[in-house]
Amino acid sequence: xxxxxxxxxxxxxxxxxxxxxxxxxxxxxxxxxxxxxxxxxxxxxxxxxxxxxxxxxxxxxxxxxxxxxxxxxxxxxxxxxxxxxxxxxxxxxxxxxxxxxxxxxxxxxxxxxxxxxxxxxxxxxxxxxxxxxxxxxxxxxxxxxxxxxxxxxxxxxxxxxxxxxxxxxxxxxxxxxxxxxxxxxxxxxxxxxxxxxxxxxxxxxxxxxxxxxxxxxxxxxxxxxxxxxxxxxxxxxxxxxxxxxxxxxxxxxxxxxxxxxxxxxxxxxxxxxxxxxxxxx
Length: 281
Hints:
- The protein has helices at residues 23-32, 44-52, 64-67, 79-92, 111-123, 138-146, 162-165, 176-190, 202-211, 232-235, 252-268, and strands at 36-40, 57-60, 97-101, 128-130, 151-156, 194-198, 216-219, 227-230.
- By secondary structure, the chain is α/β, with parallel strands linked by helices.
């Protein structure tokens, strides 16, 4: 049930009854008009909570670099770090479809490198991998798909290309809209199972969504995508700042800070631990 101060209610997940979300469920959701719910996760504790909440897809994003590892971009993230995070999330997940990012430098050389990197993530427990870029990535998507590895594409603002894009800027304006649409179609034709659209104009996201048979998942791309994804720390209010396209559905950061303050006070005033917390013999 929605909280009194929240305008958001509840709705049924893509797959009810605790059954695992599979690739074919994504296509069925698009056909039925059921919105897909995706959140990032980087560890077992968070993944278990988000999975139990009915989240359809958990993205082990290379955003772990910004969110958890203290980097100012996703570029420094290593494949070994993604393997550890993917394994942690997969072990804790019973229902959601786990998608793992291929980090920068692990697939750009071509299909052979992409396949080797994707295999490592799949062995770690991923159900699919995600890569950034348009038509130049179609060959890699095709090879991975033929190898039995589901692929999610990512267009619009692609964080791994932040230096070429001139910073965190909306993509697909003007003549670039037709290029993005062509890229989306190329990825779909190559076998991608879904497509993330990040920071693209809402009309363009709607146009791409209508043109594809595979679902689109938006982040800063408006409401007409087939689903939405957010970084979980933005969604849960873990920090004072969050992107314009995010909504804080909780204030977990403040709750955690207050819990730490209360713990510290209890230790210093010697009210914790009390007799109920220790062993007498």
